[in-house]
């Protein structure tokens, strides 16, 4: 049973470009969370999704950021018109049910130049 | 408002020393998880505690869940350089969210 898979591991974008981060949850997991982590800091919640639904996006900036978890395929975190301040590690986690552990991917490190 | 507060935020100790990391909340959690994150990697689940007062051991690591299920501690005996990392507590609330603590960055000096 493969773990949570994120790709790419590293992503470099110029200011103004779009960044697409992908997350394939563990098999059988229908709950997906996205977190952002700045260097030397903890994990900051961004968005919680279930299949085809956004459950909680209270941690996601109102502009330029969007997330989806379609019926088929990975969850996508999309950042439009990236700025230098978007440079961070973005982690995805998945859970099977509401009260079970979350398992993390290895993250995508976004660098905006 | 941070739902889970961890202390200390940073900890640097010599190899062989013991240490305790705390995770506190004013809210009750149905369970709490502890994760360790190494540089450049994602957090890895260490343990889940579910029952108030529960104690779990993982080699030199001892995890305890408070009786009221509002706090937890992680005790490391005879720390080794391989224990270096960011330790995070986390847990689900009664709704949809999964909260993370503020994290404790541990450095074990050889």
Can you give me a brief rundown of this structure?
The complex is a heterodimer of chains A (113) and B (110). Chain A has 113 residues and is mostly beta strands.
Topology, element by element:
The complex is a heterodimer of chains A (113) and B (110).
Chain A: E1 5-7, E2 10-13, E3 19-24, E4 31-37, E5 43-50, E6 53-56, E7 65-68, E8 75-79, E9 88-95, E10 103-104, E11 108-112
Parallel strand pairs in A: 2-11
Antiparallel strand pairs in A: 1-3, 3-8, 4-5, 4-9, 5-6, 7-8, 9-10, 9-11
Chain B: E1 5-7, E2 10-14, E3 19-24, E4 32-37, E5 44-49, E6 55-58, E7 61-65, E8 71-76, E9 85-92, E10 98-100, E11 104-109
Parallel strand pairs in B: 2-11
Antiparallel strand pairs in B: 1-3, 3-8, 4-5, 4-9, 6-7, 7-8, 9-10, 9-11
Protein architecture, described:
The complex is a heterodimer of chains A (113) and B (110). By secondary structure, chain A is mainly beta. Chain A is 0% helix and 50% strand. In chain A, strands 2, 4, 5, 6, 9, 10 and 11 form a seven-stranded mixed beta sheet that branches. A four-stranded antiparallel beta sheet of chain A has the order 1-3-8-7, with no helix packed on it. In chain A, a hairpin with a 5-residue loop joins strand 4 and strand 5 (43-50). The radius of gyration of chain A is 13 Å and the shape is globular. Chain B has strands at 5-7, 10-14, 19-24, 32-37, 44-49, 55-58, 61-65, 71-76, 85-92, 98-100, 104-109. In chain B, the strands form two sheets. In chain B, strands 2, 4, 5, 9, 10 and 11 form a six-stranded mixed beta sheet that branches. In chain B, strands 1-3-8-7-6 form a five-stranded antiparallel beta sheet, with no helix packed on it. In chain B, a hairpin with a 2-residue loop joins strand 6 and strand 7. Chain B is globular, with a radius of gyration of 13 Å. The chains are: A mainly beta (113), B mainly beta (110). The interface between A and B is medium-sized, with 25 and 24 residues.
């Amino acid at each position: 049973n493969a773990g949570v898979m994120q790709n790419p591991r590293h992503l470099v974008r110029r200011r103004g470009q779009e960044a697409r981060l992908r997350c394939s949850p563990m098999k059988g997991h229908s709950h997906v969370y996205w977190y952002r982590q700045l260097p030397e800091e903890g994990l900051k919640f961004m968005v919680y999704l279930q299949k085809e639904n956004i459950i909680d996006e209270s941690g996601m900036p109102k502009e330029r950021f969007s997330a989806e978890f379609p019926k088929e395929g990975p969850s996508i975190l999309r950042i439009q018109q990236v700025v230098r301040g978007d440079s961070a590690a973005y982690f995805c986690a998945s859970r099977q049910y509401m009260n079970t552990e979350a398992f993390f991917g290895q993250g995508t490190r976004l660098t905006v130049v | 408002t941070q739902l889970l507060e961890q202390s200390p935020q940073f900890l640097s100790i010599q190899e062989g020393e013991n240490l305790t990391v705390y995770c506190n909340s004013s809210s009750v959690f149905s369970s709490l998880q502890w994760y360790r994150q190494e540089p450049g990697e994602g957090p890895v689940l260490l343990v889940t505690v579910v029952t108030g007062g529960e104690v779990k051991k993982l080699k030199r690591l001892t995890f305890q869940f408070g009786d009221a299920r509002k706090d937890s501690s992680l005790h490391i005996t005879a720390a080794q350089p391989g224990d270096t990392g960011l330790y995070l507590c986390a847990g689900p609330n009664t709704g949809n969210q999964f909260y993370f603590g503020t994290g404790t960055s541990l450095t074990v000096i050889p």
